[in-house]
Amino acid sequence: MSAPLSEFVVIIPDKDDAECVSRRVAVRQEHLVGVKKLFADGTMTSGGAYLDGPLTAEKPPFKGSVVTILAESKEKVKEIMMKDVYSTNNVWDWDKAQIFNFACAVRRAKE
């Protein structure tokens, strides 16, 4: 029998080097394919980028990501997130990542 699932929130900044946004943009479509699979199978309950200003096509102000994941443990959350192309392509800064148990009080679908 598997352990009961808990919800976790992951706050993970991007690396702060000058090429990070380019790396992020280069693998973004592949990232979104993976995110959609995690959402479809119920592992990810929400997710998105946090920004340093409004989203524009000229220079996306990406600063990192925030996601909520259902998993057995923080270790399992990290295992899931480490498979993402943002991890394998050196976009996310795992030295500054935070993973917390999360008790969502309300949630609304994006319109």
Explain what you see.
This protein is an alpha+beta fold and 111 residues long. It has one domain (6-101): Dimeric alpha+beta barrel (Alpha-Beta Plaits, 2-Layer Sandwich). The protein has three helices and four strands, in the order βαββααβ. The chain has helices at residues 20-40, 74-82, 85-88, and strands at 6-13, 44-51, 62-71, 98-101. It has a four-stranded antiparallel β-sheet. The chain is globular and about 45 Å long. The chain starts with 5 loop residues before the first strand and ends in a 10-residue tail after the last strand. The model has no long low-confidence stretch (mean pLDDT 93).
The structural domain count equals 1
Shape: globular
Number of helices: 3
CATH class: Alpha Beta
What would CATH call the architecture?
Answer: 2-Layer Sandwich
Which residues sit in consecutive blocks of at least 5 with pLDDT less than 50? none
Helix content: 25-40%
Structural class assignment = alpha+beta
Cα-based radius of gyration, to the nearest Å: 14 Å
Strand content: 25-35%
CATH superfamily: Dimeric alpha+beta barrel
Taking all residues together, what is the mean pLDDT?
93
Q: Output the helix-strand order.
A: EHEEHHE
Count the beta strands: 4
Instruction: Predict the CATH topology.
Output: Alpha-Beta Plaits
Largest sheet: 4 strands, antiparallel
Widest beta sheet: strand line-up: 2-3-1-4
